[in-house]
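Example record

The entry below shows one chain as it appears in the dataset: sequence first, then structure tokens.
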Amino acid sequence: MTPKELNKIYYKEKAEYLASIQNDNGSYTCLGCGSEFYKISIHHIIKRSQSKFYYADKRNFIELCDSCHILAEGTVNMQKKLDCFAEIEATKEALLNEYNNLEPYEKSLLFKY
């Protein structure tokens, strides 16, 4: 699968995810600070540079405002300031455990699909 095809899947999954988390008034709630915003960033819990396997997996997404997204991309001490830090760590551990239990041929895939 080409990067263009993978990105197409990612943007489809991202759009579905955003639609599922949108509040009734059209805003989104940042899981990092709890504030409501009309523009939200999607943070990958497991970065694409660490593993492309979960790049387009909704379980690897978390909604953050721009300020909290900067914290999430920073050091562990910065990440600990997020209200959702424990959730991020638990999800990351679960996804990595799932990945480690895969068969070698499954691990060789660039992504989950």
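Notes for this example: The first helix runs from residue 3 to 21. The chain has a mean pLDDT of 90.
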